[in-house]
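Handout, page 2. Input:
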Amino acid sequence: MIPIHNLDPADGFPDTTTSHLRMPPAARASFSRVEPGGVYLLDNGQNCYLWLHAQTSPNLLVDLFGEGMDSLKALNPFVSSLPVLETHLNVQVRNILEYLRTVRGSKALTVQLARQGLDGAEYEFARLLIEDRNNEAQSYVDWLVHIHRSVQLELTGQRKKESTGDNSLASNFSGLRPSYW
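Output:
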């Protein structure tokens, strides 16, 4: 998750010493890291979400999307790319998006707007915040704790062995045997 609202002026431009694009530091993927008024870019390898907080500054919106786009409701939720503007922030974000497209190895990178309280894409954005517990899914930290405990039990030999009496290879796979076998 890349915070867009507080980019360093050099982020999104080539580094003068290495000629590599200077990427901004990523924030941990959790709602606890989201700042009021913030704008965040989240790429999952298939879709790229641009999440906009309900209190996003009108000036930031104009810098990103152009004149007349000074509120979340003014933005077209079906836009799939940023307009080409000559603002510093717009160029930074377009360069970051181009870098993500290049790293991904795809021909195109579509951007899905996720406006807080307005778009259904906000739910998909929230689902991608892997450090949070979403619906009945474990958070990333909970999952790591579960794996750690499983490894500890395996190493100490305390893991329960399930025995059904059927030692065939097919018995290890659920859903592969019809009920009549």
